[in-house]
């Protein structure tokens, strides 16, 4: 007897748990004209809930020691390593060769470890004591921007997603990610990895759905501090930049597609989502009056 | 007055109450009603600060907020009252002169209620003499638990007398310490017959504070009392109501249990400190279509 095909409906990931979309809608994932899974079609309300979760998690995440964030990112890599086979299978299902799939999963793990390593080092690199003359020290240091809304790359299902998330959370930010619309499978499985790897709930929230439907709220929501768009669509970019002005959201544009290149490993990608804070600290007069130390 | 036997208060069907709440919370509220409800909720808030760390400045700031909720949106109502400890009453009265915002004060050895009658009276007197419009008293839960209902009754009546005609008395049952819904109903009856103008769920110091089931039981007690005597008693859920959605559910419950007559701040209040910001956030969202950041609203 032939079995009735059971298509899994994947859920979204908000605040550390896996709710269904509030809207109750879904869309099919189609590979080579064959439906492979059902995905939640997230609504504006889901996005709002995710931003609330991200905002609540922001304080705790950015106040962890950099060393601890480093450990947690490393832990994500470890859990991903353990579930390698599943990811390879899913990548194959989405239409790429086994060899390429294995390469992509390996590199995703490496990239997480790369950014884990930077967690407690980028601050030193981008901080400075400024050359002022007077009875004070003046130094600048980077601080996380806050909640980042992310339009993940459409062409890369795992590696692109991991690269973006790692570079954002390594710097103490939290994020709400809209996964690739037609390659969303790995994103949801990656959410399962995050849920089992010490990442506090709300630090990463992953939605699935349609970019154009959510664009306005992504860019206009006033409790989002920065927005990352991976892609080239000029209309979307213009709209994002336009709406982001309202609360001076930081807009970052990155490329879609091939993430195998080394250029996606750089502390400057962490620095994209940092604000520079400058502090004046009084000391006794040194210069003119002769040193008193 | 005829002695009333409070041990004969009606028993509560807990499953029925929970079922009713489940239906109320599943309701969706349409945009226009939501907007009306939000403005109403704002106007029913008793902006509250009851902490050991309260300072003159914090009270002043709270009073300012009560009538300047969000100056960027003209035409917003003020909150109903500001609720403070007795020693801040004079200050608050001064700050709120001419604004229409009332001053409420907690008395009778708040929040535990464990003290002698003299102290409780004196506590009330300080609030009343300071010029408070409303006094929030706590009942003696200990006495209530040992079945001394007449003691609780007399105490409420005594405080009501100390308040006089012009100062309204809110009686806090502290439902988190009272336990079952049956007991909540009983305590509500005692408070109303003893002269309360308002019955209030909690001090905000004990968890669980206000919940929908407990409030529903109290609303039904108010309804029954109204049918019997024709006197309208107010209701004030307090503590733990921090978002608009929940506030709207409370309003819906009041409307359906007691009717539209109770939907004014004369008869319904929210005891809350963080609710105001969330309601404002939602109002701005309804007007602009864009979700807001908490950063745009004053923290106190």
From TrEMBL, chain A:
Alphabetically ordered keywords of this record: Oxidoreductase
InterPro entries linked: Ald_DH/histidinol_DH (IPR016161), Ald_DH_N (IPR016162), Aldehyde_DH_dom (IPR015590)
Residue ranges constituting the Aldehyde dehydrogenase domain according to the UniProt record: 32-254
SUPFAM superfamilies linked to this entry: ALDH-like (SSF53720)
Enzyme class: oxidoreductase
UniProt keyword Endoplasmic reticulum, yes or no: no
Superkingdom assignment: Bacteria
EC number(s) reported in the record: 1.2.1.8
Any GO MF annotation of the entry: betaine-aldehyde dehydrogenase (NAD+) activity
Protein known as: NAD/NADP-dependent betaine aldehyde dehydrogenase
Lineage, top ranks: Bacteria, Pseudomonadati, Bacteroidota, Flavobacteriia, Flavobacteriales
Gene name of this polypeptide: betB_2
UniProtKB/TrEMBL annotation, chain B:
InterPro entries documented for this protein: Aldolase_TIM (IPR013785), DeoC (IPR011343), DeoC/FbaB/LacD_aldolase (IPR002915)
Annotated GO CC locations: cytoplasm
One GO BP: deoxyribonucleotide catabolic process
Enzyme class, UniProt record, top EC level: lyase
One Pfam match: DeoC
Entry annotated with the keyword Nucleotide-binding: no
GO molecular function: deoxyribose-phosphate aldolase activity
Domain of life: Bacteria
Gene3D superfamilies, sorted: Aldolase class I
PANTHER family cross-referenced by the UniProt entry: DEOXYRIBOSE-PHOSPHATE ALDOLASE
Name the UniProt record assigns to this protein: Deoxyribose-phosphate aldolase
